[in-house]
Structure formats: C-alpha cells, structure tokens
Amino acid sequence: MTATPIRLPVMSRARAPLTLTTQVMNEQGEWQDIALACERPLTLYLNKREIVTLMTLGEDPEALALGYLRNQGLVENLADIEAIQVDWEVEAAAIRTSRQVEDLEELLSKRTVTTGCGQGTVFGNQMARLEQLQLPDWTLKQSQVYALLDRLKEHNATYRNAGAVHGCAICTAAGEVLAFCEDIGRHNAVDTLAGHMWLKGLEPEQAIFYTTGRLTSEMVMKTAQMGISVVLSRSGATQMGLEIANRLNLLLLARAKGRHFQAFTAQQRLELDARPALRPGDLK
C-alpha cells in the first residue's frame, strides 16, 4: 500500500472502555469475575441531520463515523470533512462538512436494513456505483493465506478477554496487518477500518480484507468500496454476498481456519502452491 498526504479533519479522541467486569455463577454454583464486552449506542449527525444509530464497542468512534459515511457514499472526499466530535455523555457523533451533501434526503429515503449484527444499512443505488470501480486484479498464493492466518492469531485481544465481538483487518499479501479493529458488529469494524484507511491516506494495491464474521452482501460491498479485491473470512458467505463478489471479480475465501478454506469466487486468482497433505478419508 502507498500513503497519500492528506489534510485531516479536527477530531475528538473519545475512545471508550472496551470491557467491564461482572460477576457470574458457574455450573458448580461458584461466583467468579469475568470480563464483559461493552455495547453502547452512537448516533451520527451529519451537519445536524440525524443519520443513524450504531451499536458499538467504542474503540475508535471517530474512524467508525468517518468510515460509515464513506462506505454509504454520503461523503466522497475526506477534504470536505471539517470536524468529527464524539461525546459519550450524549452518545452522539457530530460530523461537520464544508459543503452540504447532495441529494441527502433522497439517499436516506432509499435505506435498506441489512442482516448485519445490530443493524446494518445500505443507502442509495450502491451497486451501480460499485460496478464503475476498477478493482485490483492480482493473484494470491495459498502459502500467503496460511501465513496471514497464522499472523492474525496475535490479534483479537477483546475477543480473547471477553468474547462477543467481531474482528476485522486490512492486510497485505506479504502478511503485514496494517490495521485491526474489533466491534460488536462486523459492519462497524469494517467501517472503522475504512475510516483508518482514509485518515492515513492508504491506497490499496495488493490488500486483503479479513473478518471473523460471515460475508454478506453488505460486507462484500464495503470491501469493494475500499478498493480491495480479496476477502478472507473465518465464517461462511451468503448467496447475495457470493453473487456480488462474482459480479465484481472479488476473490472470496471463506471458512478459513487452520489449513482449510473454500474459494467461492474468482478461483483463477488463487495459486495453489501449498496444498496440505491428504489424510485418510479426505477423498471420500
């Protein structure tokens, strides 16, 4: 990836606690302290217009707000955003832009509620815009998939501590994890990563999007909107997620655990250079 110098908006730094401690009783009737993942509402206001309420962990709310607006096509240029201010006392993020969003009311009227954890949304005619993108067309090696999966085991800190969250990452084919985010919903995590990419001026070349969650239409579309053409998931895919990946020629790898994975689309973009040894019964 390359980084392009950019002008950043004025932003608060309102990171909230990610976990809290509570007492539970186990099957033996014993009391113990455990960590619990936090969940809090964050309502986004764009130029004082209420847009959506997201249920979030609160790890990086400014990047979440920015990535959400970017992935929904509500703001096209980072330079147009003057400020992002998050206030957890009122559970709100106020985003101010230098210009009004064209056709905002029309875009909001075309909202589709998706199956994302919590509540995902897709605004306007996103597919028409996506099909105009020129996504990178490159070949990924099987050995690179395995190396990346091994590297990602170092992350998921909140999940290991408290569970109940999804993790997403932006990675390179060389196995570098450029950004990692955990949140209550996987759509929030990918929006946060989109915000990070925008703020850091990262332009994807041979980039991979990783998620612990399922690959729905919304997740595939958001990956494409970030200019990434390889998606790797520990979970499965939906019928519409597969259809959209096919239309955009995304290499979609799902159920990736250990040395196993399933290539759902664009199989010609995968080089099988590290096939695991067959075990008795594998060919049945």
Automatic annotation (TrEMBL):
One GO cellular-component annotation of the UniProt record comes to:
cytoplasm
Gene Ontology biological process terms, A to Z = Mo-molybdopterin cofactor biosynthetic process
Q: Name one GO molecular function term.
A: sulfurtransferase activity
Q: Which UniProt keywords apply?
A: Cytoplasm, Molybdenum cofactor biosynthesis
Record-linked InterPro entries: Cytidine_deaminase-like, FdhD
Q: Which residues form the active site?
A: C117
Please verify whether the record's keywords include Cytoplasm.
yes
Where located?
Cytoplasm
The UniProt entry, under Pfam families, shows: FdhD-NarQ
Q: What does this protein do?
A: Required for formate dehydrogenase (FDH) activity. Acts as a sulfur carrier protein that transfers sulfur from IscS to the molybdenum cofactor prior to its insertion into FDH.
Similarity annotation: Belongs to the FdhD family.
The protein's matches in PANTHER family, at most eight in alphabetical order, are given as: FORMATE DEHYDROGENASE (PTHR30592), SULFUR CARRIER PROTEIN FDHD (PTHR30592:SF4)
What is this protein's record name? Sulfur carrier protein FdhD
Protein species of origin: Marinospirillum alkaliphilum DSM 21637
Q: What is the lineage of its organism?
A: Bacteria, Pseudomonadati, Pseudomonadota, Gammaproteobacteria, Oceanospirillales
Q: Which gene encodes it?
A: fdhD
